[in-house]
Design brief:
alpha/beta; eight-stranded mixed sheet; 22 helices; 8 strands; RNA-binding; tRNA-binding
Amino acid sequence: MSIVGIVAEYNPFHNGHLYHLDQARMATGAEAVVCVMSGNFVQRGEPAIIDKWARAEMALRCGADLVFELPFCFAVRSAYNFALGAVQTLDRTGVVTHICFGAETPDLPLLQQIAFILSEEPEEFRTRLKALLDQGHNYPLARASAVSSYLSYHTRTLDPNQVLTTMMGPNNILAIEYLRALRETKSSIVPVLVPRVGSGYHDTSLTSYASATAIRGAFSDPNWDKLVKPYLPSPSHEILLREIDQGKGPVQEKHLEPVLLALLRRMTASELAAIHDITEGLEHRIKKAARQSNSLIHLKNLVKTKRYNLTRINRILLYVLFNLTKTRAASFDETGPAYLRLLGLSPSGQKILLKIKSKCRILLINRVKTVNKLLSPQSHPVARDMFDLDVLATDIYSLFFAEAQRQGGRDYTVSPIRIR
C-alpha cells in the first residue's frame, strides 16, 4: 500500500495545488495523501492569509486525507530546516511511502546530484564557496555558483548555466532540500517530482495557474473576491469567503507592524543577540533601524544587506516576536518534530490514522486537551516547549482577527476538521 506525503503551506489552496495533489496521487498510485502543512505563520516569515484549520479544510475538501501541522519552529525556518522538519514528520508517521514535490525542472537526477554535494560538502565546493563569499556575493548565489563550478568540472556533460539556473528556482530550492533531508535522515521514502505548471512562485500576475503570491496580492483590490475566484477550487473559495465574513482574515504582514516595532524598541542589543540567526553584530543594525524607522517596510530596508535578504529578515523578525533563541532552536533541531499534530482528516484518513497510531515513532496529538498529561514539562521539556510555541503562534495570530474573534487558547478549543 502506497501513501504519498505532500509538504505545503496552502496559503491559500489554489488550482496549482489541486493539480499537484492529483498528480501526486496518480504518479504514485497512492491510496491516501498525507499533508504536512505550515501552521499560522509560513516559511517566508509572514502570517498565513487565513488560519491553519481553514487551510487544512481546503486541502481535505480538495482531496487530501490527513493534514498534520509542521511545528512553528520548523515552519518559519530556512529552506533546509523547513524541509528537514517536514521530511522527518512524514517519516515518523511510519506509513508514508512517497513524497511528492513540485519543481521548475523535470530533471530529478540533477536535483539529486546537487543535493548530494550540499550534503557532503566536498572540499573543492567549500573552497569555492568561501572565495565567492569573500568577494561579496550573497549566500544563495555564491552557493549556486560553487555547486555549478563543481558539477561542471566533475560532470563534463552538464551545462554550468543550467545548474546555476536550476539552483535559483524557488521550487527547485525546496526540492533540493527535501532530497538532501531524505539522504541525511536515511529515509526510505521515495521522492517523486511533479514539474510546476503555470505561473512562477513569485509571479504576481493572475494567470490560469496563478501563484499563491498573486492571489494574496489581489486582496488589496476592493473586488478581490471576483478576481481570485477563477484561480481557486470552489471549496477553497467558499472557505476563504466564510473566514473573511467571520472576521478571521485576511491576515497580512502589515498587522505585525505595531507589535514588532514596539518590541524592537524595547529590547536591548544583548537580548536581540540571543535570538536565532542574529549574528555578526546584526543586533546593533536592528536597534538603530528600530529607532529610525516609521514602518515595518522602512525597518527592513534599513536592516537588509547582501547577506541578510528581505526573506531572511522577515524570519528573524518572527524569531524576535516569539523569542526563538539560538538555544531553543538548537534544542528543537536536535530532536526534530516531537509529535504529530492532527489538523484534519477525511473518512479515508481515519483509516490511515489507525495505522499511524500503531506505527508512528512520536506522540500523536489529535485531542489537545490531553497534552498536559502526555507532554509534561518535566518528562518532555523540549517537546512541550515546541508545542507551547505552536500555541503561542495561534494566540498571537488571533490578535489580528476582528475584535470578536481575538480570544486566546484556540488550540485547546478547536477540534481537528472532519469531512464526510
